[in-house]
Amino acid sequence: MTTGEATKTRSAAVIDGIKSSTWSSRIAVALTAFLLVMLLVRAVQEPALFTSQLLIGLTNGAILSLIALGYTLVYGIIELINFAHGDNFMIGSFVGLTVLSGTIFGLGLFAPITINSGAPLRILGVLIALFVAMAACGLLNVGIERVAYKPLRNAPRLAVLITAIGMSFILQNVGLVWKGPIQVPFPELISSANILPSDAIIFRWKDLFVVLVTVPLLVALSYFIGSTKQGKAMRAVAQDKDAAAMVGINVNRTISITFLLGGILAGASGVMYGLFNGITIFNVGFTQGLYAFTAAVLGGIGNLTGAVVGGLLIGVISAMSDQYIGTSWTPIVIFSVLILVLVFRPRGLLGDRSAVQGGGE
Amino acid sequence: MSGLRRVISLVVLGMVAALVAGCGGGGDQGGGGSGGGQTVKIVSDLPLQGANRFQSTTMVNAIEMAIDERNGKAGNVNIEYESQDNATAQAGQWDEAKCAENAQTAAQDEEIVGWIGPFNSGCAVVEIPILNEAGLGMISPANTYIGLTKPGGEPDEPEKYYPTGERNYTRVIVADDEQGQAGALLMEEEGVESVYILDDKETYGKGLADQVQQSADELGIQVIGREGVDTTAANFRSVMNKIAREDPDAIYFGGIIENNAAQLVKDKLGAGMSNDDVLFIGPDGIFLDEFLSQGGEAAEGAYITFGGLPESELSDKGQQFVQEYESRYDDEVQPYTAYAYEAANVMLDAIERASKKGEVTRETVLKEIFATEDYSGVLGTWSFDEDGDTTLTELSVQRVENGEFEYQRTIDAGEM
């Protein structure tokens, strides 16, 4: 009896919700449902193809997610869109490449690690490249904050935005001088062979590598923010800088640590991008940064879960669009989705700043 | 007080301006009158930054060499040469704004009577109309896009590039209608029955892919799909995965190396399509050593068509040029080096003929460029037709073997 009543009130609430909704949101729901059904039909028709594309989308999206996290972390804490972040990611891939080449600052430390090196050496090389790039990019990001953003902390927000764009140009030109204005190849250290026995679904060692790097980083990041004292301080600063300072939190140090975290993620994703795609270029930070920033906005900028969801979503959308619509339309599809989401949910899919500020919209 | 000062400075400024103008006028008269000691200028316009910079540098060297061989003179006219760069570091390749800027600057400089370049067809699209208004004759060593000189591209081509109605553009390389035919012919010879065609959405790449598609249709090769790829994407895995499902015998890519062609080949292999099972065919836009170094193992077995001949297949004069170039610069020639040399020599001959007939002006040089007939140079014996295209029809096919481009065979598109 009671359950029946509960269902009744719930269904009544749903009907009320539908009645009170606007026509535009009804159309949006119908459109989303239509697209999902279309995809589902395709998935049932050719499950192997659909799964392959889904996996491609998810791995591409995972790399985007890591970059997007850097944008969102910084935005969550000082409400700055750190345009230099994408270029920091590019520097990360260059640092990784230099480490793998064995020649650092003109000093030949060890022989280049290439496809012909033994498996243990290759694994070691990848790990060292990852750690060096993470350290370098983390410190670089902290340095950028000290030099270009900290002096402007109380200036109008537009001023900091401009210095961020300036830093982006500086880094891009550093990359340009460093590796030249052409695509540079990465050594193929990770096998492109399929792990799965059948040829129908492709999941390569490279894809596994992306998962093995991304997941631990995400877990560590959420542990750090959710369960450590420093993480608590970050959330406090994100909520209210002045109040946080009043209760004795070192705001400057907390902001520096946020930039450090963002840089570490940029370094990791830079090396991963290079090893995964096999090619990097000085302006990769711009093109990939644009998509990553889009991912952060899509998920709700400032929201860590949102950045991951946004990144994965953009990866999957572009893979599906490549398959079912046509690759020439992919950028249009991605940005149409962004516009649609922002029209109906101006604060992004999961709402802005909620996770850093302690949950809830 | 300050008012007086302003008046004085204005007067001084006016006097200086008048003086400069007077000098300029005098200089012009001197140049025109002296005849024998006349100095004219030619410029080249190539992308000197980005993936193409090695090749462009050899092309500039070849032009300098052609001028030096004549002791800096064409007939009795002194030649000044300036190498312009139409690439920007930011773009990492040719840049539309830079192309337009270079053309505008040259159009203003009356001393310039000849233009060698550009390298990229997309750049030519911007430059031809500007230089057409200025009446400056152009010889391109490398543009292959068909619509620049003849119908076959967009509906209003080529007329829209020539606002004055007079032609001013020529090229010493075989155009893409023939390179497209060569690509399709190659597929036929290799027993390809179905092909998937991709392009980079640029003037050159898309135009060429159109030509290939047309020729493939004519030869009865099934075109399974045709797409323009997003060159800003991190990789092309989902596109390649889709293509793998269609199971074509070949993939054709119309585009340039700067638009991530090496990534495309890598992802093609990653999707399980080896270059032996599914042929990869690309045009002269990826006929660069960069393609080999970036593609690595993945480039092995790829076919490249080229709207000309590699240095090993050139005429005797061509062989002589290659030897002289390599001993002079201690550097290997690139596919387009000989074409730049030929373009420079055609230009210098045109200036020489113009000087023998009278005054060397843009108009007379342009007339003489189009009058080039039965020219015997490093590329063979050829003429310009009324569209400004070469009468040569031979193209070559190379394949990547052991990390190098190996010449495979010559295809004569004129016989089709």
TrEMBL record, chain B:
<dbReference type="Pfam" id="PF13458">
    <property type="entry name" value="Peripla_BP_6"/>
</dbReference>
<comment type="similarity">
    <text>Belongs to the leucine-binding protein family.</text>
</comment>
<dbReference type="InterPro" id="IPR028081">
    <property type="entry name" value="Leu-bd"/>
</dbReference>
<dbReference type="InterPro" id="IPR028082">
    <property type="entry name" value="Peripla_BP_I"/>
</dbReference>
<feature type="signal peptide">
    <location>
        <begin position="1"/>
        <end position="21"/>
    </location>
</feature>
<protein>
    <submittedName>
        <fullName>High-affinity leucine-specific transport system, periplasmic binding protein LivK</fullName>
    </submittedName>
</protein>
<keyword id="KW-0732">Signal</keyword>
<feature type="domain" description="Leucine-binding protein">
    <location>
        <begin position="40"/>
        <end position="403"/>
    </location>
</feature>
